Amino acid sequence: MRFLPRMLALMLAVAICLALVGSAALADPVDDFVESARAEQQIPGVALLVVKDGQTVKSQGYGLANVEHQVPVTAETIFQTGSVGKQFTAAGVMLLVEDGRLDLSDPVRKYLTDAPETWQPITVRHLLSHTAGLGDWPPDFSLTRNYTDAQLLEKIYKTKLQFAPGEKWDYSNLGYVTLGMLIGKVTGKHYGEFLRERIFEPAGMSSTRIINEADIVPHRAAGYRLLGGKLKNQEWVSPAMNTTADGSLYTNLDDMARWDAALNGDKLLKRSSLDEMWTPVLLNYGKTNPRNYGYGWVIDNTPGHRVVQHGGAWQGFTTHISRYLDDKLTVVVLTNLAAGSYKKNSPKIGRGVAEIYLPALKGAESVAE
């Protein structure tokens, strides 16, 4: 029976080899990539959604939604959208166009009658496409002051136009804050309530809503920032500045999958409306704007792989959605870390994941925002 120990050792070795081969076969390159990026960038938590051919192939959390309580990220974890929320505001405006309640060529002063005379050339389309000349918040603006809508508009009205409307392109949160006020004037409702009734509820997006830090919100993630290489909680902003239409929303992977599905059909928005939103706006001299911006979306003409996308960064969160229209691939990345340059955060992860599913993208130039 001397051969028995030798036989057992051989069987054990074979079992270990089979286990190693099996684990290697089961290793997911996407998981490896995301975890590597998360570690490299010191991101507490990442939520990743991948939809291919209309089917969710990955909806997964990595790391922590709340570091202090050691709560893991899941598909239900609620993140702040940042400027990814602009596409919902733009969709709301397009719904009003479809309803016949406004026209994109209408002067903004038709609805906001107290706007200054210098605003007469500014149209709704200019606000949607960041070509109104408004720029961004003035230096004396405070994110910790609880402005009323009237006070916000007064601040915006006093902002000097940077250029003639339609002459140039310059990213403008002020333009989208103004669109929220305009939606309110047309509908008689807060823009967030209008989005809930016309977009979130019809699309089944039960977790997406206006930010409210006072409310009890299940699965809400905490936002973080790096200060001197150390993790800190997000900086506080006033409640009023967390309800504006430039991107003050909560959402999660489950709802973003429903949003993606809604964009694939025509029950929410007409196909003609989506096509217009995903077409770069022309400047006054007939050329497309340098950012290839439509309405709430950047259009990236990666050779052979048409993609519409948008990023966001706000209050300890970064987000990114990219929809590769020709490849029927959507990648959504939500993180709870405010990066110094968010191009190194969620957009970088999103592009890397897309390249795993679409190897032809590697080396192709991207205007990822």
Quick summary:
The protein is α+β, with helices and mostly antiparallel strands and 369 residues long.
Characterization of this structure:
Helix 3 runs parallel beside helix 6. Helix content is 34%, strand content 19%. Mean pLDDT is 90; it is low at 1-5 and 7-25. It has helices at residues 3-26, 29-41, 86-98, 124-129, 149-157, 173-187, 191-203, 253-264, 271-277, 346-357; strands spanning 45-52, 55-66, 71-72, 79-80, 209-210, 224-227, 230-233, 249-251, 298-302, 305-314, 317-324, 329-335, 337-338. It has 369 residues and is an alpha+beta fold.
What is this structure's SSE topology?
Elements: H1 3-26, H2 29-41, E1 45-52, E2 55-66, E3 71-72, E4 79-80, H3 86-98, H4 124-129, H5 149-157, H6 173-187, H7 191-203, E5 209-210, E6 224-227, E7 230-233, E8 249-251, H8 253-264, H9 271-277, E9 298-302, E10 305-314, E11 317-324, E12 329-335, E13 337-338, H10 346-357
Parallel strand pairs: 6-13
Antiparallel strand pairs: 1-2, 1-12, 2-3, 4-8, 5-8, 6-7, 9-10, 10-11, 11-12
Helix pairs in contact: 2-10, 3-6, 3-7
Task: Kindly list the characteristics that best describe this protein.
10 helices; alpha+beta; disordered N terminus; 369 residues; 3-stranded antiparallel beta sheet; 7-stranded antiparallel beta sheet
Rg over CA atoms = 23 Å
Q: H/E order of the elements?
A: HHEEEEHHHHHEEEEHHEEEEEH
Question: Count of helical segments?
Answer: 10
What class would the helix/strand composition place it in? alpha+beta
Mean pLDDT, as a whole number?
90
Q: Summarize the main sheet.
A: 7 strands, antiparallel
How many strand segments? 13
Tell me the fraction of residues in β-strands, as a range.
15-25%
Please give the order of strands in the largest beta sheet. 3-2-1-12-11-10-9
Q: Would you identify the regions where 5 or more consecutive residues have pLDDT less than 50?
A: 1-5, 7-25
Measured as a percent range, the helix fraction is: 25-40%
Form type: globular
**Intertermini distance:** 70 Å
